[in-house]
Write a structure and sequence with these properties.
The chain is 19% helix and 10% strand. The protein has 63 residues and is α+β, with helices and mostly antiparallel strands. The protein has a two-stranded antiparallel sheet with strand order 1-2.
């Protein structure tokens, strides 16, 4: 029985990436794309959307 090959698109450049141990940077195609993405997060260019149900006014601390 042949294994199904799973591919995903690199979040940075959209190149197809095989999802297995042979692709060490998955879901990225390369270390370069991984570092570009990390830089965008560090520069706060990428953000996780805020849940409207929680606001700073509610003094939510997550503890």
């Amino acid at each position: 029985m042949q294994e199904e090959i799973i591919t995903v698109k690199c979040p940075q450049c959209q190149k197809e990436v095989i999802w297995d141990e042979l692709s060490p940077w998955r879901p990225f195609c390369s270390k370069r794309c991984q570092m570009i993405d990390l830089g965008e997060w560090a520069a706060e260019e990428n953000r996780i959307p805020l849940d409207d149900k929680l606001s700073e006014d509610e003094n939510w601390s997550g503890e």
